[in-house]
Design brief:
This protein is mainly beta and 235 residues long. Helices cover 0% and strands 43% of the residues. The protein contains no helices and 15 strands.
Length: 235
Amino acid sequence: MRKQIVVVVLVMVFFLGGSIVQGSIIGSLSTPDTSGLIAGLNGWGPNEDGYRVTWTITLEAEPLYPLLPWHYKYEFSKANGDPLVKLTSHFIISLSEDIQESDLDYFSDDIETVTFGTLGPGSGNPGFPAGEEIYGAKFDLWNNQAVAEFYSNRQPMWGDFYAKDGKAAPNVFNYAYNTDLGVEVANPHDYLGTPIDEFDNVLHKVLVPNTIIPEPATIGLLGLGGVVLLRKRKK
């Protein structure tokens, strides 16, 4: 296996019977390409400010919402961690196709709307890799915010990421996406390990909600059909 490039930090992780009972998983991808992200050349490129997405996934010991014990937080910054000048307008994460509307809820005030469905190249997603698509969720942010948070009953898995900013100039946008968007992960549910492909090559992925539903109370929730627009519920 090649040397790991994606940095994942485990904070306050405790094990009981082979499963995590409380703790946070922190990781990030950034430009230049060797750090996991490909970005446009209008402020987010490797020779400019660059771009970084950082995720903090927490299994709460005393959940604020007992049926949604996982807290997902995504932060967006320059590659060096400083605040972005050209902020994130929306971002997309891949999800399992069995995801249900009630599996994600209590979105932070930064999130305006969430759209579920198959997402890909088009005028709304400049720079999205041709021929690729993501089944997942698109998060539109109020006033191009730099943080987005929500709660879920789904444990994390490795998935794809895409982000776009507002106009940097007439008809010019910034964008960023993981270098191996569309490449299948051989160990998607090994969220404490390094994502790899079928040949054991290290992949650049982010942690997103997965197919596992740990709480039996969620069984029987209404499924999604086609593309669903989910209105924000504030914390």
